[in-house]
Write a structure and sequence with these properties.
Helix 17 links the parallel strand 15 and strand 16. The longest helix has 22 residues. The chain has 703 residues and is an alpha/beta fold. Helix content is 46%, strand content 14%. It is built from 28 helices and 22 strands.
């Protein structure tokens, strides 16, 4: 390649020609595409390639990715595509120009040297051949935000890797490694060194017959109905991007590429104008990114986290120990007896074996991780801990006992955290000789798979302790939200209302099957009755016993659960609860209590969905008004990542905004006869009169 021979000048791209009349195109590092309209920017690139292909002496084109992931912000995309700035015809014109490239019968090769996803990956599909460096990632992660990638992706991708593979890649947000992308056919060749890519690209152009140079856009394989059902079973029709992809891939086999391109452009803009994607991006992208930012730590620069003491080697304590060891931290895992502590360490071994089988860990990494965990029944093995996390049974006296016993072994600059579902931190801190260094860290089970940590400040918790807890959460690769003390804090409190509403509907005579089905249809991870069986009805009664008081609806639920426990219907472990569990088949079937008469009036499924979504959102506002939550976005993160609230809503406050506050109030009023959980704060009514919204696009309106 003669780098001194410039083929033409361009403000955004460097263009060069070699002696074979092969043209290479690179984006200029001085260009700033993030400041440009994305369609205008890509149109300049496409027009440039088209001009080059039109030249008779051009035998092939090599281009690097015209855009990089870091140069595209979702805020920019929403500003452009959810407004009148862009029309479907603008996007369609761009894609139709790319489709025209195949008429030139000249080979186009793209070079990928960095991770390539979303629109950046879409531009790579425009080439005939793709050459990538090793150890990169490819995919369409925006599907987890209810979006999909257009720019010809739904046309070119099925032709390259098959329609079913395209469906999975476009809707599951999974990222492929370079090797996986190569095996799938997304990548044509892997370069051992990035510097090898250009010579490989030239070789493709010189040796690929021109008869094979055109794009193959006439896809032949139709979408398998079973593949669609598998996606729909999980997505439940709640994600606009997934719905659009299914529709496009269904219709493409009977359409021309031009017709498919036009349909793709229309649906792309329709999806951006749906309320769900913006809410999901706000919570699950930007808010999570901010929650994980080390910039939140403002006052500490000398706190070192080398050793963690974990009290209790049950499921929670074992999971915390694993996460700490995985983060490279030494762990003293203490329980009453050594065999119990060793069983706790065995959990880490089990998780490591799964990672080994998946290729996510090698034997050396497993041995190093396990070596960091010391199971013990001796309290002095906690000595020198920079943090002690107590994770014993939910009992005030037990927690106080282990707290007092272990505090003398805490490093002078360390802090003590209690992992509790609902017990007030301020009360638990009374067992400490220094409540300023005492805080709540509510992990979620299974700890190695659940990303959230709810950090709870007691009335005497000092800022330094909070920041140490944040440092710990981030070291464990968790997403922290910070809330203030109160019975149930935030996540458990609103989740108890979800479970309460499920029980309340059963007591009203609504079919338990319908309750569970509509909970899933509403987007919840698990139905309320199944959750109760999983945690056990006895544990739910114990939680109610710990609360400072119960209102009438809670008392009714308590009485009903107590009656079920007395009948030995204690939940999944006992083989019977709200479900019956078959030991041999491992299947469960819903139990209909013959004592409860069926509701006289048919309840529409949409009412059940509203009740489950609204009751949690309503109590979330109470948490905000009472100061348990500092900001709505913490509630949105916590509701989705902590207790499985419907993710397409963007969280509890996103749900209220989407419903609109006046409508939300009116619908909650319709349910007030169902119980005290539907009491509406006067301050919320006042906000409704002003048609208040918690967010304006990505910005919070809360004081």
């Amino acid at each position: 390649m003669d780098e001194n021979k410039s083929y033409m000048t361009h403000t955004l791209f460097r263009v060069e020609q070699d002696n074979h009349h092969i043209i290479t195109i690179h984006p200029l590092s001085t260009a700033a595409p993030e400041q440009l309209d994305i369609i205008d920017y890509l149109t300049q690139f496409v027009d440039l390639v088209t001009f080059i292909l039109e030249q008779e002496d051009t035998i092939g084109v090599v281009y690097s990715c015209p855009i990089q992931d870091k140069e595209i912000e979702y805020t920019q995309l929403f500003e452009q595509f959810s407004s009148s700035r862009s029309r479907p015809s603008d996007l369609y014109k761009l894609t139709s120009k790319v489709l025209h490239w195949e008429t030139f019968k000249k080979t186009i090769v793209s070079i990928i040297s960095d991770n390539c996803t979303a629109i950046a990956l879409a531009t790579m599909l425009w080439s005939n051949c793709r050459i990538a460096s090793e150890k990169l990632q490819f995919g369409f992660p925006e599907s987890k935000y209810g979006l999909f990638t257009a720019f010809g992706t739904t046309i070119y991708l099925p032709a390259l890797i098959g329609t079913e593979n395209a469906l999975n890649l476009l809707t599951k947000s999974k990222l492929l490694s370079s090797e996986e992308a190569y095996k799938l056919g997304l990548i044509n060749e892997l370069a051992q060194k990035p510097s090898d890519s250009l010579s490989l690209a030239i070789n493709w152009i010189l040796n690929l017959p021109t008869t094979n140079a055109g794009h193959h856009t006439e896809q032949t394989d139709e979408l398998n109905p079973e593949a669609i059902l598998a996606i729909q079973k999980k997505a439940r029709g709640l994600y606009p991007g997934t719905n659009a992809v299914i529709e496009l891939l269904r219709k493409n086999p009977s359409s021309t590429a031009v017709e498919a391109s036009e349909r793709e452009a229309i649906l792309y803009l329709e999806v951006f104008n749906c309320p769900e994607p913006l809410s999901m991006v706000r919570t699950l992208h930007y808010a999570v990114k901010l929650a994980k930012s080390p910039d939140r730590i403002k006052h500490l620069d000398n706190y070192k986290l080398n050793k963690i003491g974990v009290l209790g080697a049950g499921m929670m304590g074992s999971g915390i120990a694993y996460e700490a060891a995985r983060a490279g931290i030494e762990v003293a895992l203490k329980d009453v007896t050594l065999p119990q502590a060793e069983r706790g360490k065995a959990y880490s071994s089990h998780v490591c074996e799964k990672s080994l089988a998946l290729g996510a860990m090698n034997p050396s990494q497993r041995e190093q991780l396990l070596a960091r965990i010391k199971p013990t029944d001796q309290v002095d093995d906690l000595n020198g801990s920079d943090c002690i996390i107590e994770a014993v049974f939910e009992d005030f006296h037990l927690k106080a006992e282990v707290t007092k016993e272990s505090l003398p072994y805490l490093n002078q600059n360390g802090f003590f955290a209690t992992n509790t579902t609902s017990l007030p931190i301020t009360e638990l801190a009374k067992a400490s000789n220094d409540p300023k260094k005492f805080i709540g860290m509510h992990f979620f089970s299974p700890v190695d798979r659940m990303p959230l940590v709810e950090i709870i400040c007691g009335k005497q918790t000092e800022q330094k302790t909070l920041e140490k807890a944040l440092i710990t959460a981030l070291r464990l690769n968790k997403i922290p939200i910070v809330v203030q003390d109160g019975p149930g804090f935030f996540t458990s409190r609103i989740f108890f209302n979800y479970l309460l509403e499920g029980i309340t509907m059963v007591l009203e005579g609504i079919s338990p099957t319908l309750v569970e089905e509509e909970a899933m249809a509403a987007g919840f991870a698990v139905g309320p009755l199944a959750v109760l069986d999983e945690i056990s009805l006895e544990l739910m009664l114990h939680v109610y016993d710990q609360l400072p008081g119960l209102h009438a609806s809670q008392k009714r639920a308590y009485t009903y659960l107590k009656g079920m426990v007395d009948q030995e219907r204690k939940g999944k472990k006992s083989g019977a609860g709200f479900y019956d569990y078959d030991v041999e088949t491992k299947k469960k079937t819903i139990w209909k209590n013959p004592v409860i008469a069926s509701a006289k009036e048919n309840v529409t499924p949409s009412i059940i969905r509203k009740r489950l979504l609204h009751v949690m959102a309503l109590d979330s506002y109470r948490c905000l008004a009472e100061g348990v939550l500092n900001q709505p976005i913490d509630g949105d993160i916590g509701s989705i990542l902590g207790v499985g609230y419907a993710s397409y809503t963007g969280g509890v406050f996103g749900h209220i905004d989407c419903t609109t506050l006046p409508t939300f109030i009116a619908e909650c009023e319709d349910f007030q006869a169902k119980g005290e959980q539907w009491d509406i704060p006067e301050s919320l009514r006042e906000l409704a009169k002003k048609n208040f919204k918690f967010y304006s696009d990505f910005d919070s309106n809360w004081r």
